[in-house]
Design brief:
five-stranded antiparallel beta sheet; 25% helix; disordered N terminus; globular; alpha+beta
């Protein structure tokens, strides 16, 4: 029987980032005191970063797909820096590379892929390139202690080095605050119209009430992905250009005081320090930043199909514009844009945007609850095809015979977007199957969010439908605002058009 055993240090509780050492003459400082002071100083730095600056890519970190010397496909992330959601700086150097096909063939990854993408035949796998912060103990030095210890027990790291990890993931990291911020700005752009006309202007109390109501309605009807502010196409508010400053100042005040706390991680405000960052509140995605989404084509065996290109989508990547760029833009560029816009709006030579048909709906005879959507985007040059419709980009409501307020007259319908019925190169493109739980006789209202519908323009250029409409200076039948199109059809008809 062994009488002597190894003695290990007791794990100390995490230091409170709201406390710093109160230095007094004659006070003996120990490890706990130095650790506490470090936690206070770094905690305040991170607190300032995440509350006043935000997070995302700062510089570099370009994601690309290349071939290595053996002809294997690899995903490359360039040198660069980022700020994590918890307020820590991450530096990636040198350039990092990952063999995609090797990663796909790992046993645990193949099992997950089989659940996500049934094959044969092959399909498209969605992967996310994610950058995370981590630290690494380093520089071991001898430490005093008891005898009869191993060499490993006789040394301890004297430094902790900032580091990083880059990963492929099947799910994107949580970025609720980033998504909510984008939705807030989009809601303002879609619902506020500046005008010089004095008729039918919205007053400030009404604007505040509608903004708050939009947040409440979105919370009461959760979607996937979530809609943080309810987008009613009939809630367009006319605001006098002279009052624009007051309205936007009010909107940003409501964001800071009421809306941002709804979608900001609760762990960042759970203590009296208002910046809780203890181990107990951390999750796997606390310190991770999304760099890119990869749409990876697979062959019938579930490995990379080298005959097709990998699509890199960086639309959801959060990033931060540095202050010097904003200063230059506000000093010089913004005024030029405003003057150009004013000159364009005042010029009588500007042609109005052509109005194009948007969608047709046809019932499928073999399943009364299935319909086929046909996006009528081939009206110009026959070179536009819808490639994907994101979750939440299409919503459906049944009209109700009710004299109450607008929102109370709409009954949300369960809608399932099925796979497209066309392939690239097929003349019968822009067709998607939809399953809808509408009842016979319902008047159905469909809302399309064009900013979340991606199209292929020309040969290889991919963009959102909103961007396409802006570039081509077109509007669609049923379009309300900059990004919403509304279509109606009656469920008891066989072929229906907007």
């Amino acid at each position: 029987m062994d009488t002597f055993t190894s003695r290990t240090a007791t794990t100390a509780a995490a230091p409170d980032p709201s406390k710093h050492v109160n230095y007094s003459y004659g006070m003996v400082l120990g490890v706990d005191d130095l650790t506490q002071e470090f936690a206070y100083l770094t905690g305040r730095d991170q607190w300032m970063m995440r509350d006043s600056i935000g997070y995302g890519t700062l510089s570099g970190l370009r994601v690309s797909v290349d071939k290595d010397t053996n002809g294997e496909t690899e995903v490359t992330v360039g040198v660069g820096t980022a700020l994590t959601p918890r307020g820590q700086l991450v530096c990636v150097s040198p350039r990092q590379c990952a063999n995609l096909n090797k990663w796909l063939t790992f046993e645990k990854n193949r099992e997950t892929i089989q659940d996500l993408v049934p094959f044969p035949p092959g399909g498209t796998l969605r992967l996310y390139v994610v950058l995370c912060y981590r630290d690494c103990p380093t520089d071991n030095v001898p430490i005093p202690g008891e005898p009869c210890r191993t060499e490993q027990e006789a040394t301890a790291p004297s430094r902790v080095k900032d580091s990083f990890s880059l990963e492929f993931r099947f799910n994107a990291p949580e970025q609720t605050e980033e998504d909510a911020l984008r939705d807030f700005i989009k809601w303002l752009n879609d619902h506020l119209v500046l005008t010089d006309e004095a008729d039918a202007l919205t007053d400030l109390p009404t604007f505040i009430k509608r903004l708050r109501q939009a947040a409440q309605d979105a919370a009461a009807h959760p979607q996937s992905p979530p809609d943080f502010l309810y987008d009613s196409p009939f809630d367009v508010m006319n605001v006098s250009a002279d009052d624009a400053c007051q309205f936007f100042r009010t909107a940003f005040r409501l964001w800071v005081t009421e809306l941002r706390p709804l979608w900001r991680p609760a762990r960042f405000g759970a203590t009296t320090a208002c910046a809780d960052d203890t181990d107990a509140t951390r999750s796997a995605d606390d310190n991770c930043v999304l760099l890119a989404e990869l749409n990876v084509p697979l062959d019938a065996t579930g490995v990379l199909d080298a005959t097709q290109e990998i699509e890199i989508n960086e639309e959801r990547r959060p990033y931060l514009i540095h202050l010097r760029l904003l200063q230059e833009w506000l000093t010089c560029g913004a005024f030029d844009m405003i003057e150009a816009a004013a000159a364009t709006s005042a010029s009588p030579a500007v042609e109005p945007a052509p109005v194009l048909p948007f969608v047709s709906i046809t019932r499928k005879r073999d399943d009364p609850q299935q319909f086929q959507l046909w996006f009528q985007l081939d009206a110009r040059d026959n070179d536009v095809a819808v490639t994907s419709i994101e979750h939440g980009a299409l919503t459906a409501f049944a009209e109700q015979d009710d004299t109450s307020a607008y929102r109370n007259r709409l009954k949300p319908l369960r809608l399932e977007l099925l796979k497209p019925t066309w392939k690239e190169g097929d003349r019968q493109r822009n067709r998607f199957d939809v399953k809808l739980d509408a009842s016979d006789g319902d008047l159905v209202r469909l809302h399309f969010d064009m900013s979340h519908i991606r199209v292929l323009h020309g040969r290889r250029e991919r963009m959102s439908l909103t961007e396409y409409a802006r570039r081509e200076n077109v509007r669609f039948v049923g379009q309300v605002g900059k990004a919403i199109v509304t279509a109606f059809f009656s469920d008891d008809a066989e072929t229906l058009y907007r």
